[in-house]
Design a protein that fits this description.
Elements lengths: L8 E3 L4 H9 L9 E8 L4 E2 L2 E10 L1 H18 L4 E12 L3 E9 L2 H18 L2 E7 L4 E3 L4
Length: about 150
């Protein structure tokens, strides 16, 4: 049976409540001994004298979800992970709000530490997710990922 491809997209910002609930759901999983979390937050960057007030995210969602599935499966094959959650915002996210959430769990700390950076970097590099920086003066430009 083919595994269902998960939809990683959340409309708007990822709320602190969603993050807390995700953590809380793992309290019953007593074989897990370590978690690691990456949270990506929209910065109020100053670019050419203009301040970013928000980013509007768009994506080729079907392709992004498929590629993310492949990244997830590779991580589960390489590292001894128990659990993994990946969420990325779609739509507008204001400066200061969370737009990207990666949460990995394992019986031990090394797999979570070793996998998290690779997961985040692969997702940022490979998924067709695009951000339009919206400035306080109502202008915009396409974001360059760093």
């Amino acid at each position: 049976m083919k595994e269902k491809i998960k939809n990683i997209f959340v409309e708007g910002a990822i709320s602190p409540t969603k993050i807390a609930e995700s953590i809380a759901h793992h309290q019953s999983k007593t074989k897990i001994g370590a978690h690691a979390i990456f949270l990506g937050q929209v910065r109020a960057d100053l670019i050419d004298g203009k301040t970013v007030s928000a980013i509007e995210y768009t994506a080729q969602t079907e392709i992004a979800n498929q590629v993310c599935h492949e990244i997830r499966e590779a991580a589960f094959s390489k590292y001894e992970l128990s659990c993994m959650h990946i969420y990325h915002s779609h739509g507008q996210v204001k400066a200061g709000e969370i737009c990207f959430f990666v949460f990995v769990s394992s019986a031990h700390r090394d797999p979570v530490f070793n996998s998290l950076s690779k997961l985040v970097n692969d997702i940022k590099a490979k998924l067709p997710i695009f951000g339009k920086e919206l400035f306080e003066d109502q202008t915009h430009q396409w974001k360059v990922n760093q």
